[in-house]
Design brief:
CATH topology: 2,3-Dihydroxybiphenyl 1,2-Dioxygenase, domain 1
Structural class: alpha/beta
Radius of gyration: 14 Å
CATH architecture: Roll
Strand order of the largest sheet: 1-4-3-2
Number of domains: 1
Distance between the termini: 29 Å
Strand content: 25-35%
Number of helices: 2
Length: 118
């Protein structure tokens, strides 16, 4: 039986990635170990893991995660308030598949799409 999923995304610089997720998206570190080249972060009931990929060309990165949220408008406003850029093609809008969504890019161009059922 499946119980959870924790996506793993590439990162070029652990400190930059960690600071972005902690300070912009209000994530927290998961666990107490500081692994070389690996980062685990959590927010509420989700985790995202990151592996070091120093040679990553962000323009060629297709890492993507879809995160379902409650209270998407409040979260969207939090990101705007702290200066987080919303993806130019991912503004907050209602999609034909019944979700209110928006998207951002992290420092390595991993696409994070946030969606809430309407």
């Amino acid at each position: 039986m499946f119980t959870d999923i924790n996506p793993k995304l590439p990162m070029r610089n652990k400190t930059i990635t960690k600071n972005f997720y902690l300070n912009r998206l209000d994530f927290q570190e998961f666990g107490s170990a500081d692994y070389d080249g690996y980062l685990m972060l959590k927010k509420d009931n989700i985790q995202i893991h990151f592996f070091e990929f120093k040679a990553l060309n962000p323009k060629e990165n297709y890492g993507q995660v879809y995160i379902r949220v409650d209270g998407i408008e409040k979260f969207h406003q939090l990101l705007l308030d702290n200066g987080t850029s919303i993806h130019p093609n991912g503004s907050l809008q209602i999609k034909p598949w019944g979700q209110r969504e928006f998207s951002i890019l992290d420092p390595d161009n991993n696409l994070l799409t946030f969606g809430e059922s309407i």
